[in-house]
Amino acid sequence: MSELTPVTTVRLGEHLPLLDLLPDSQPLAWVRSGEGLVGWGTYATTTVSGPHRFAEARHWWQKQLEKLAVNNTVHGSGTGPVLFSSFSFSPEDVSVLVIPQVVVGSKAGKSWMTWIGSGAQPVLNTTAEQFSNGEMKWSEEPQADVQWKQRVSTAVSRIQKGDLDKVVLARDITVSSNKAIDPRVILNKLAVEYPTTWKFANSGLVGATPELLLRLSRGMVTSRVLAGTISKTGDDAKDLALAGSLARSSKDLAEHEYAVRSVADAIEPFCSSTNVPDSPFVLHLANVMHLATDVTGALVETLSHVDAFTILEQLHPSAAVCGTPRPQAAQLISEIEGMSRGRYAGPVGWIDAAGDGELGIALRCGQINGDSIRIFAGCGIVDGSDPEIELAETYAKFAPMRSALT
User: Fold this and answer.
1) Which of 258, 263, 275, 338 is the most buried (most CB within 10 A)?
2) What pLDDT is stored for residue 96 in this prediction?
3) SS3 sequence, 9-31?
């Protein structure tokens, strides 16, 4: 048997500015309000695809763990070796799994570091370097807005015929730069403007999602469901009135209920109890407001084989990014959306050696390819959706990445 590779986790003590520590332009990140995990260097990486990609990802991760000798004096979720995961929306597209050489985590004012290999503890770069991206050129097709509104109209007519209840349609814009795009610049801008979202980076996919698909920690499951959106005006009094109208909107409440029910139904078989609030709250972000519901559950204690991969397989794609019923919505997306989503709207985050983890839905994001980046936005379409209003919503959802790229 070959010799095991050492993995060491030590406490660092003070809270650290995680996004300032990243030493290269291929960062791994999952950070919210200054807490979370960042990683760099590659110990091992692979890709998976197809209908069994979550099971294949688990199998690969467990095989990697068998090669490691872990010395973890910190303990708790996110300590020890960590797998940064970014799954595709569609089974046909490629999902990316990365085990970084170095991970630094921070939670509740405490920080820790994990590194793989027999070398000395890595020295942290605690002086924030200044980076900048080049001049951006937006390549928007003149007919793109018209075509997208036509797709919305098609979806509404199919819904009115009774083919399905809801479908989520997405669109994209490609932005080019005069030099290679550095995700660290984007992460830091998003952290300032959207502190309560989860900032993420994995293999060129970078963004700030407000939607937590799954947190699994010590037998407790949490999922934050967002569906139903209204743009903010920047005027507090007007926005308060808009929040009230969103909370009363029958169209938005129906869209939200489909998304909540799909999540609750997915986790219920694994849980001894679940909590689904009767009505959503309004989540205020810098640019938009969403109807939001936190669904929670306690895992059945006898189900020892259940881990983040198991639950993700059932959760994804939820009605928040696909539609209801799921098979009909997925088919309509494939038929009329006219693009590959790649890892947009797929689960992104991390999973640890215990099978716990935090993964959001990859929203408000873009995929970097050298000196260009493809950014995405999507809307839930139901009976009563207006193509013009949905178009405006896509531009509100493009706004975080547009701002981070300027």
Assistant:
1) 263
2) 98
3) EEEEECCCCHHHCCCCCCCEEEE
Question: Which range among 57-61, 222-226, 250-254, 284-288 has the greatest average pLDDT?
Answer: 57-61
Both tokens of residue 354?
Answer: 């215990």
pLDDT digits (tens, 9 = 90+) for 9-40: 999 977 889 999 998 889 999 999 999 999 99
Q: Tens of pLDDT along 363-386?
A: 999 999 999 999 999 999 999 899
229, part of any domain: yes
Domain that holds residue 162: 5-119+140-404
Q: How many other C-beta atoms are found inside a 10 Å radius of the C-beta of residue 87?
A: 28
d(CA 402, CA 205): 15
**Residue 262 near residue 323, CB atoms below 8 Å:** no
State the Cα–Cα distance between residues 349 and 196, nearest whole angstrom.
Answer: 16
Angle at 130 between CA 127 and CA 134, to 5 degrees: 160
The domain that holds 254 is classified in CATH as 3.60.120.10
Peptide bond into 81 cis (omega under 30): no
In a domain, 125, yes or no: no
Q: Which residues pair with 275 in a beta bridge?
A: 296
How far is it, in rounded angstroms, from Cα 226 to Cα 291?
A: 6
**Of 219 and 95, which is predicted with more confidence?**
95
Select from 357, 343, 336 the least CA-distant residue to 153.
336
Residue 275 lies in a domain: yes
First to last CA, the chain: 53
pLDDT at position 128? 60
C-alpha distance from residue 122 to each of 21, 114, 116, 217 (Å): 12, 9, 10, 28
The yes-or-no verdict on residue 142 having pLDDT over 80 is no
Helix (H, G, I), strand (E, B) or coil at 52: coil
Spatial neighbors of 340 by CB under 8 A, at least 6 apart, are: 90, 93
Q: What is the pTM of this model?
A: 0.93
- Lowest-confidence range among 101-105, 147-151, 203-207, 247-251? 247-251
Pairing type for strands 212-217 and 357-361 reads antiparallel
Tell me if 299 is assigned to some domain.
yes
